[in-house]
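Hi all, long-time lurker, first post. I run a small reading group and we've been trying to get comfortable going from sequence to structure in the token notation. Rather than ask abstract questions, I figured I'd post a concrete chain and ask someone more experienced to write out its structure so we can walk through it together at our next meeting. Sequence below, copied exactly:
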Amino acid sequence: MDIQLNYTIAGQGFPLIMLHGNGENHTYFKHQMEPFSEKYQVIVPDTRGHGQSPRGTAPFTLEQFAEDLKAFLDSRGIRRCHLLGFSDGANVALIFALKYPEYVEKLVLNGADLYPAGVKLSIQVPIVLGWGLLQVIRRFDKKAQPKWELLDLMTTQPHIRPEALTALSIPVLVVAGERDMIRDSHTQLIAKSIPGSQLAILPGDHFVARRNWQAFNPLVLKFLQS
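-- Answer (accepted) --
Happy to help. Here is the structure in token form:
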């Protein structure tokens, strides 16, 4: 059973769908909404179980989020769009583009990873420890379940083979921060595995779209309009 995703929308023209990261909602892109909506119809959904979107009963996986995105686009009659994803949103965007390439005109992957080992150990270790702790607590306290599910996404997902990326024949921009939580070598692997992709490393950390939008926005707009 499909759920109704909460979303925000601005502007007219060709659809630009933006997907937020783990534990966030559509407001993550507050610095992109206005400038991007001058050129595109910007649509930013809250992922299942995030923001004001319901959790539903389906599996809480990145693959399910990609299916939710397809149902969302189909319900709006959108058959082609630009797709921009951040962090887990980038992973969902990548899974979606691999499965439904006919929907995607151009793809922007900001802070993506193909598998959990792509995340720096200093970030991943506390996540795994928290995941293990909540694994126990959730058996006694139902309130721990949503937190555990969020950590489970980062601990056990995604699982995309680098070789699978060779199938992408659309223009792709891979973006990361100089001090990103994703390993530099992993970001380079993603870019290298996608034929003809562009790679941009911007000053800042994992959250460049929010904290260094002055560099992020022109880069993305130039890519989408080129």
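A couple of things your group might point at:
The radius of gyration is 17 Å.
Strands lie at 7-10, 15-19, 41-45, 81-86, 104-110, 172-179, 198-205.
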